[in-house]
Design goal:
The protein is an alpha+beta fold. The chain folds into two domains: 149 residues, ATPase, nucleotide binding domain (Nucleotidyltransferase, domain 5), CATH 3.30.420.40; 163 residues, 2-Layer Sandwich (Nucleotidyltransferase, domain 5). Helix content is 36%, strand content 28%. The chain contains ten helices and 19 strands. Strand 12 and strand 13 form a beta hairpin. Helix 4 crosses helix 10 and helix 5 packs antiparallel against helix 7.
């Protein structure tokens, strides 16, 4: 019998869950390839360590951008390697795959995900929308008539969705998320301190001391980069207030998307959301004080699941285990 697996194919990280086992693999969505031949050199954590450090003969590539596939062949090669890791380096049976997609992607982008997964060695592919998977993985009861709101902030996309009767009533998919926060930090240090840092260092700063509300400030850190005036290595100390200033404009786009979605929500569901609160999922949910900020701006309680980074993968796993409990969650597509 073929194995059923679920994939949270994220811009920053890919998580794989296997029916009956839960999450079995968690790797960065990065591939290192030989520039001349296109041969895969490394995948996942090993490839991420090469970002910004590779010689001219090797290129470290992130095959997804803004939640969709940007490098088809590289994405297929990455998925193939992940399948091999999950199968213990042997692929005796081609897996049945359920893979997540952002809400509102085009038919061409959906087809690219399907084709890349089949190219990687899957027997069949079914799609599940990220907000649905995030809601299920966060423990929300989506099958009833009461409305729920989930905000899933990943690496490439932010999904703000209102869910009722097992489906998405309305959603706002924003291609502003974790990657843009990292970019904002890089630009801030370049502008304010004349110091250039890499995206990996910016991500580390965001995770360690990132804050969008003074109540969640987490001190300061020392980072190393290159002085843009002298060209020499430089060290600079950054605190949570600096990070908050750096990412303020990017966070405002997420806030605007939330407000727009709330303004368009039917009155009956608005009352349900006020009672149930807003669920904040994805890696962006770990940003210090984001729940406090959103709650203060909307007057609605904002909650986070126990494992926000894994919400989508956990949701896919629950659908795999009990598909009959979530009718309509998976989009089966004929080819």
């Amino acid at each position: 019998m073929s194995r059923s697996i679920g994939i949270d194919l994220g811009t920053a990280n890919t998580l794989v869950c296997v029916k009956g086992k839960g999450i079995v693999l968690r790797e960065p969505s990065v591939v290192a390839v030989e520039a001349r031949t296109g041969k895969v050199v490394a995948v996942g954590s090993e490839a991420k360590l090469m970002l910004g450090r590779t010689p001219g003969s090797i290129t470290a590539v992130r095959p997804l951008k803004d939640g969709v596939i940007a490098e088809f062949d590289v994405a297929a090669a990455m998925l193939h390697q992940f399948f091999r890791k999950v199968s213990g380096n042997t692929m005796l049976t081609r897996p049945r795959v359920v893979i997540c997609i952002p809400y509102g992607v085009t038919e061409v982008e959906k087809r690219a995900v399907e084709d890349a997964t089949l190219e990687a060695g899957a027997q069949s592919v079914a799609l599940i929308e990220e907000p649905i998977a995030a809601a299920i993985g966060s423990g929300l009861k989506i099958g009833g008539s009461r409305g729920n709101m989930v905000i899933d902030i990943g690496g490439g996309t932010t999904e703000v969705a209102v869910i009722s009767l097992g489906g998405i009533v309305l959603s706002n998919s924003l291609r502003v998320a974790g990657d843009e926060l990292d970019e904002a930090i890089v630009n801030y240090l370049r502008r304010k301190c004349n110091v250039l840092i890499g995206d990996t260092t910016a991500e580390m700063l965001k995770k360690a001391i990132g804050s969008v509300h003074p109540a969640a400030d987490r001190g300061e850190m020392e980072v190393r980069g290159r002085n843009l005036l002298s060209g020499l290595p430089a060290t600079v100390r950054i605190n949570s207030a600096n990070i908050r200033e750096a990412i303020q404009e990017t966070v405002s786009h997420i806030v605007d998307a939330l407000r727009t979605t709330l303004e368009s929500t039917p009155p009956e569901l608005s009352g349900d959301i006020y009672d149930n609160g807003i669920m904040l999922a994805g890696g962006g949910a770990l940003l210090g004080g984001l729940d406090i900020l959103l709650s203060g701006l909307t007057g609605i309680r904002v909650r986070r699941p126990k494992h926000p980074l894994d919400s989508v993968a956990i949701g896919i796993g629950r659908v795999l285990e009990s598909e009959d409990k979530f009718p309509g969650a998976i989009q089966y597509r004929t080819r």
